[in-house]
Amino acid sequence: MGNTLSFSVTPSEQRRASLIEAVSGIHVDPRGRADAIMTIVIASIYVFDLAAVVYMFFNRNYPPIRCKSPILMTGVLVSSAIWFLGELHINGHVPLGDTPWNNCKAFAIWMSALLGVYTLSSLIAIRIFGLIRVFIVGQQFRGRGLYMALLLWAGSMLLYGLVVQFLPAEKTLFYVPLADMCNSTKGLQAAIFAVIGSNWLVVLALGWYARNIKSSFNEVLESAVGCFLIFLVLITSIVMHYSRPAFPLSAGYRIMVTCIDQSSTQIYWWIIMGVPLYNCLFRRERYLREWTRKLMGDGLQKEYEVSDPGFSVNTTLVGRASNAISMAPMPSPRHNDSHRGVNHLQTPIIDRATSTENGEPISWPQLADYQQANEPPSSKHHIRRW
Question: Where does the source fall among the domains of life (predicted)?
Fold first, then answer.
């Protein structure tokens, strides 16, 4: 029995299904067209993702992209792709046979559980932790803070993986030739769900702590979406493993589980990167001006380190942008928009800062200091601390 995807049910696959039904009485949907179509569709999406990542790195110094942490977001896609390969194995989409695919611990533990979903949830937690460091603690997320977060993720993953790796297969995970699938013990399943569940609790706690962050570009919403998607993946997996432990034998259930898992990672990635990538491609300079003005208007120059046309951006996980940016001054409001809830405290300050009392222009590098000195106390932006 090989491990080649087929758009038709092969004779060996039909024999396998008939044998399992005769021995266990469980109905088996042979692996064939539906599994092959799902695999090709998801693989095609990852090809598109790869093109987006390449474009992202070619434009990594574009500030709206750079502030989204392109290195971390690349890690999210890589871990998702590894998870997909592991799911092809553990959810029963591909024949295993006498091939390296029947190495159950490599695919189910390392690729699916640890380098896949555990790493993905850890990267989401690290991103939220970085937002807390920047917006609440007021420190840059680099150096010791970043290294400690990465060390905690890598150390916990290696500890769990090595323990499972050296335990006997009959106590953890083993290959069943009759079913051409891997079978895991109840204890291992509970341990995996406990590890991933504890990681989700960390994401939830960090997201709750960061709920009052004052930010300009939906960072808190992105964190909330990530927390919800991890919860969805965890609940789906727990329900399927305990209510229908033989779900990999059903084409509908195994495809549903894999599609929910992979859709979750795609939604999370594109919610974060979709807007800056689209605008970089189609509205590069215009969006950059809008993006910078929003920062200035929200009073978040310090957090993003934006002060002038040659500004630098302090991103959550990566350093400063080096591009010089041309930005026109913001126009003063010509009528009263107070009934619309528009805050005029910031815009007039920016306009007044462009000239002195004598009418001489003030250079942009002096703008941030001028604004801080002349800003009324009532218009200060404070970050509520939890």
Answer: Eukaryota
**What is the pLDDT, as a whole number, of residue 374?**
46
Write the CB contacts of 176 (distance below 8 Å, at least 6 apart in sequence): 182, 183
Query: Which DSSP symbol is given to 171?
Result: G
Classify residue 289 by burial, with Cβ atoms within 10 Å: 0-12, 13-18, 19+.
middle
- DSSP string over 73-88: HHHHHHHHHHHHHHHH
Number of residues written out for the chain? 386
Most distant CA pair in the chain, distance: 95
pTM of the model: 0.75
Report long-range pairs for 19-26 (Cβ below 8 Å, ≥24 apart): 19/178, 20/178, 20/179, 20/249, 23/178, 24/246, 26/246, 26/249
pLDDT tens column, 17-43: 889 888 888 889 999 889 999 999 999
- 149, burial (CB in 10 Å: exposed 0-12, middle 13-18, buried 19+): buried
The radius of gyration of the chain from alpha carbons, rounded to an integer in Å, stands at 26
Beta-bridged to residue 181, according to DSSP, are 176
Whether the pLDDT of residue 310 is over 60: the answer is no
Burial 3-21 (b: 16+ CB within 10 A, else e): bebbeeebeebeebbeebe
pLDDT at 54: 96
Reply yes or no on domain 11-285 having CATH 1.20.1070.
Answer: yes
Token pair for 76: 């999210």
| Domain residue ranges in the chain | 11-285, 303-379
Angle between helices 144-166 and 186-209 (to 10 degrees): 170
* pLDDT value of residue 352: 36
User: What region, left, alpha or beta, does residue 357 occupy, with left being phi > 0 and alpha being psi -120 to 50 degrees?
Assistant: alpha
pLDDT digits (tens, 9 = 90+) for 201-242: 998 898 888 887 766 567 778 888 888 998 999 999 999 999
* Bridge partners, 175 (sequence order): 182
Residues facing residue 355 across a β-bridge: 361
